[in-house]
Write a structure and sequence with these properties.
- This protein is mainly α.
- Among the domains are: 36 residues; 36 residues.
- It contains seven helices and no strands.
- Helix 1 runs antiparallel to helix 2.
Length: 141
């Protein structure tokens, strides 16, 4: 937890004006380690922990690519940016960009699923409907 600079100044001022480190820790409800650390510092502002790492994918470039090429496949986007598909999936998830959910039928062309489901019109010689067997049941005559 990061304490405010104002509290840090109060604690350091209390100790430098003759108060004890343990008393300051008890009075201001901070750990003894914090009191000693703040006394050893020149600057009481919180330190930045680590440097944010540089990513291969630029967020804005990815957003622009999705807007410009909404129908591009993940593997095409990954090749464009020079990253793996899993990295691209994670970046899209962080940006809350999801796959296209509108059915193509709404846009005027029948969807692939609709074509598969309704393309079977008659059974073949073995009693199975044309099309993918996992989508159609066998009919016994």
């Amino acid at each position: 937890m990061t304490y405010s600079v104002d509290l840090r100044k109060k604690v350091v001022g209390f100790v430098r004006n003759g108060g004890g480190q343990r008393e300051a820790a008890r009075r201001f409800e901070v750990s003894l380690w914090c009191v000693r650390d703040w006394l050893a510092r020149k600057d009481l502002r919180p330190q930045q922990k680590g440097v944010p790492r540089q990513r291969k994918l630029d967020k804005e470039a990815l957003r622009a690519h999705v807007r410009a090429n909404p129908d591009a496949l993940l593997r095409e986007r990954a090749a464009h940016f020079g990253v793996r598909i899993s990295s691209l999936e994670a970046a899209l998830k962080r940006l809350r960009i999801t796959r296209k959910k509108k059915d193509a039928e709404i846009q005027g062309t029948p969807s692939r699923k609709a074509n598969r489901l309704f393309s079977a019109t008659a059974p073949d010689d073995h009693g199975a409907w044309f099309g993918k067997p996992r989508l159609c049941r066998r009919i016994r005559l």
